[in-house]
């Protein structure tokens, strides 16, 4: 069991630091392998070219290169792709602190699209803000990076995740 307590998110690649309440995370067993194995079974992430690049208790990051196949009519990353990837980031952040015999399902989320999805690559971060035995709340942030590596926040998400106890990682 790993216990991690922090009162702010670590800055990633010079991105803004978001202050939060102090939250204690309890990770069970080999949480990182469990999260990565589940992510590999998510075919949509493979389809859009997304990679799980960081897994910590209560926080994950997913990165994805720009692809013209994932754009809307104006050439920006489609809002559905942004929402899908933020949902995965928030879900896996929650899953990382669930007991080993649990599965995760999203039961609600809200996305704010802040800026057009225009960039060379994208980073999606999910962080647990309220852990719980049956319900967890997570926040997500999506960033677009230009060719010089400058980041711009393009979306945020707040999601509610359900802990499905005693079911392992549910199969479809």
Automatic annotation (TrEMBL):
What InterPro entries does this protein's entry cite?
Answer: HotDog_dom_sf (IPR029069), PAAI_dom (IPR003736), Thioestr_dom (IPR006683)
Q: Where would one find coiled-coil regions in this protein?
A: none
Top-level class of the enzyme under EC nomenclature: hydrolase
State the UniProt keywords alphabetically. Hydrolase
Q: Which E.C. number(s) belong to this protein?
A: 3.1.2.20
Domain of life of the native organism = Bacteria
Q: Which GO terms describe its molecular function?
A: fatty acyl-CoA hydrolase activity
Give one Pfam family: 4HBT
Give the Thioesterase domain ranges.
74-144
Query: Which reactions are catalysed by this chain?
Result: a medium-chain fatty acyl-CoA + H2O = a medium-chain fatty acid + CoA + H(+); a fatty acyl-CoA + H2O = a fatty acid + CoA + H(+); a long-chain fatty acyl-CoA + H2O = a long-chain fatty acid + CoA + H(+)
Q: Which family does it belong to?
A: Belongs to the YigI thioesterase family.
- This chain belongs to the protein called Medium/long-chain acyl-CoA thioesterase YigI
